[in-house]
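Before anything else, study the sequence and fold tokens given here and see whether the fold suits the sequence. Record follows:
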Amino acid sequence: MNLLVLRFSAMGDVALTTPALIAIAAKYANIQITVVTRGNFSPFFYNIPNLNVLGINLKKYKGIFGLWKMYRDISKLGPFGYVIDLHGSLRSRLISFIFRTKGVPYQKIIKGRREKIAQTRRYNKKLKTLPHTVERYLNVFRKAGFDAPLRKGPWLNVDGESKIYAKEYFKSIGLDKKSGQWIGFAPFAGHALKEWSFEKSRRLVEIILDEFPEVSVFLFGGKDEAEKLNILKNNSTRVHLVQGGNLGIRGELGIMDRLDVMIGMDSSNVHIAALLKKPVIGLYGTTHPMSGFGPFAQEDTGVLQVDLPCRPCSIYGNTKCFRGDHACMELIDPLDVVRRIRVLQNVNTLW
């Protein structure tokens, strides 16, 4: 049987499909899996047995005619015995519906929108732990008749090309051989409300350099964040820039795989590092790990947060602060991050 799996975006959500896909591939060796996602996300699925990736450019499939063209392009990789919709978007539901009219059964993800609304409303919140996104993915397979236990991580594998990119990058910054410990820091997120203040990010880099003389810091960001990254670097020879626009996902995976710890907001960088089974420190304010988006398998040690009655106010960080002062992030001090680094030192014997 060939299972068609749909998950188009976003980056972190696509990466989080890998624990579920690995579990299914390990238990059902006679099943072929075809994943349809954005083309640049293909490196996430390296070395998963019996899995093919159809990388698509969503801009090519606009409107009703575009949707039909997408269906026709996907069909070329069939026939399919089941459609597994892990996205639950209008586009994925319509594609699934077309396959259903052709006699192909399908199951779609249950996102728990009602429970999430109860978590994020301003008053009378009902904050309870919801299933992790990975568990929601596995539940879709279970409903389709494919039940499989999770496997031990890492859940992302770094391919040879990624390792070459990383090797060339480290050579270009004069780190041919690893010395001391390497800490990654991703100070940005897809939504501003999920980010720390820039001053706190600047202060954190300064404190890490002072507290850990043998540490090198790697700052992750995009091309449009280059100016801010250079301010954080502050001409330090121990701080290095990792810009995804220049390296691509493969390059970032190769570099992240060499880190000892990854610090970031509730964003794809933290989730990807956790899937690589790297110790992470995720700063959560507007959002909350109890909504099902904690760093996978590190929902406790990998989360740094403060308890406030207004939290969470959003699932994705695309709202406005109820209080107006962004206290949920501002009350997290750079020294709190340094203390957590020291905890991870003891837990993982990094230093």
